[in-house]
Write a sequence for this structure.
């Protein structure tokens, strides 16, 4: 039998070896499954928050087990799916880096998620993309994508490209490695996680057991994006306690907690709100009012700042406002509770600069323009980075997340998958230089 000739694929060509059909078919199949997470369970210990995510985890378990070179496929009791793709580099195990790839299985609950019906608009020609149910994706959102195949829903539901595009791309990368053993790779650990949208999926995650020294979440938007910074996040609850008396006999006796709460909101700085800030500016956001009676009312705010000290000084500002409102409302008891939600991952990632450098190399080798961004929110990567696993975010290709207009371009999926492969190549290319 003639010896098989192994041809190494140049990084710029990797994209042409992605099996588009297989990746898109897999994505569409997964998108049809409703894996919405349940915000109402966010305060409980129930992970996953919905059983549909557990079923989905077992479906992924089957897919991963069918890829020959993938080992160690496990679904744990929290429905976290992990697996290993061993390295093919001939070197002692100690010298080979272990790199994680994460994507989340749950989808957001902002719009309906039942009976998702993905549609593929082949070779998009330009103009507004009109879906059913009055949903229109404006042409401005699609400007770069003329000629590409665009995946949308029928206009009634979410698509869930956030983050099933990430899952489909990671699985396609595993298939690629299975079919191209000539391409050197580090040891790759896979993590498909539940409940990202409600910020709970990694509460019970064991970073040590996962065993990677760095990782990437595949959960961003435009190919070429690299996000290594998130907000610092605090939640503040303020409880106003008054005294209720029949309004007819209330003079000098009633203390209305609602009035104090309203005073407080009026005093919040308008130029420090989500609706008046962007880019790297932080904010204080009154998010909801829970109890609302004369006797007792309560307000929940979120505080966001890229700088931790900035967050603390905004919290100080809130304390000062509480003081002012106390003076305005004698007899009203005001209590303020602060809870840290997540931290900016920047300083944790900075401890392992190669995780950023190799991703930049991977993006460049794929032929993409690097877009460095700070996320005005949190990611699973924030939690992982703080837990000791530096995890910046790479693009998955989806647009207009959390809406009925959510869409995904097939060409972008290919670019994102190729970026993952070229980033992995960068990790092992350096090994040769070191030894
Ligand atoms: Zn996401």
């Amino acid at each position: 039998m003639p010896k098989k000739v192994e041809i190494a694929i140049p990084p710029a060509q990797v994209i042409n070896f992605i099996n588009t059909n297989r990746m898109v078919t897999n994505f569409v199949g997964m998108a049809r499954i409703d894996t919405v997470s349940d915000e109402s369970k966010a305060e409980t210990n129930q992970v996953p928050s919905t059983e549909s995510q557990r079923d989905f985890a077992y479906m992924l378990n089957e897919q991963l087990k069918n890829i020959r070179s993938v080992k160690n496929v496990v679904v744990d009791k929290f429905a976290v799916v992990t697996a290993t793709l061993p390295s093919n580099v001939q070197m002692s195990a100690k010298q080979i880096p272990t790199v994680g790839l994460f994507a989340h299985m749950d989808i957001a609950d902002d719009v309906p998620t039942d009976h998702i019906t993905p549609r593929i608009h082949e070779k998009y020609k330009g103009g507004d993309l009109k879906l059913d149910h009055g949903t229109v994706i404006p042409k401005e959102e699609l400007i770069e994508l003329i000629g590409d195949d665009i995946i949308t829903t029928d206009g009634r539901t979410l698509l869930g490209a956030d983050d099933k595009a990430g899952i489909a791309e990671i699985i396609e990368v595993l298939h690629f490695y299975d079919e191209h053993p000539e391409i050197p790779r580090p040891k790759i650990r896979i993590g498909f996680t539940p409940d990202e949208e409600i910020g709970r999926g990694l509460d019970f995650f064991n970073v040590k057991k996962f065993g990677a020294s760095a990782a990437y979440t595949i959960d961003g938007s435009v190919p070429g994006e690299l996000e290594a910074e998130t907000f610092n996040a605090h939640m503040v609850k303020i409880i106003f306690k008054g005294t209720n008396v029949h309004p007819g006999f209330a003079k000098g006796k009633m203390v209305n907690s609602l009035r104090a709460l309203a005073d407080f909101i009026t005093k919040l700085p308008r130029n420090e709100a989500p609706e008046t800030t962007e880019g790297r500016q932080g904010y204080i956001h009154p998010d909801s009012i829970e109890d609302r009676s004369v006797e007792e009312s309560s307000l929940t705010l979120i505080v966001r700042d890229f700088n931790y000290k900035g967050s603390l000084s905004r919290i100080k500002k809130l304390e000062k406002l509480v003081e002012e409102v106390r003076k305005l409302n004698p007899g009203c008891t005001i209590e303020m509770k602060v809870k840290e939600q997540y931290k900016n991952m920047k300083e944790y990632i900075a401890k392992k600069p190669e995780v950023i450098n190799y991703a930049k190399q991977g993006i460049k080798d794929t032929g993409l323009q690097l877009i460095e961004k700070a996320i005005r929110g949190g990611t699973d990567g924030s939690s992982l980075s703080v837990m000791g696993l530096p995890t910046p975010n790479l693009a998955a290709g989806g647009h207009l997340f959390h809406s009925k207009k959510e869409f995904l371009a097939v060409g972008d999926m290919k670019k994102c998958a190729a970026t993952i492969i070229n980033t992995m190549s960068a990790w092992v290319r350096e090994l040769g230089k070191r030894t």
Observations:
- Residues 120 and 151 are 4 Å apart (CA to CA).
- The mean pLDDT is 94.
- The first strand starts at residue 71 and ends at 75.
- The first helix runs from residue 20 to 31.
